[in-house]
């Protein structure tokens, strides 16, 4: 494989993410005039727009980093993959599997419980082992997300099935969300 084709292959993912974020930002809702009629940017379309914008920005930064790495590798005449030697592919695959499991568990467990479990497991995969740190990151993170999504953005999050629905409602009342 030539260095140019290798470099283009490395740029394919961030370019696809950039293109996808630009394309999807135009299709958040079926009727684009609905977005213009909403009174504030914090409503139901605000969060998807912000996230797609963040994905686009991260993709631009990724593209810039890849271009710089290609330039450095060309100047030094070294293989470009040297900087990624320590990448933990196993952890990355576990992380991707965890995201899929989160999506599957969300309707059954509800947002608060599924998110708390996801954040705690994500931290464990990332190497956080101290119980107090793990509890604080999980607890504060989940409560912050609940306030952002339910109270601020007024998004109806999944409450779960059966006993999990009751727990979610009780938690929302305890937090003063409703």
UniProtKB/TrEMBL annotation:
TM helices/strands, residue ranges: 49-68, 88-105, 111-128, 135-155
Annotated keywords: Membrane, Plasmid, Transmembrane, Transmembrane helix
Residue stretches making up the DUF1468 domain: 28-157
Species: Azospirillum baldaniorum
Highest taxon in the source lineage: Bacteria
Protein name: DUF1468 domain-containing protein
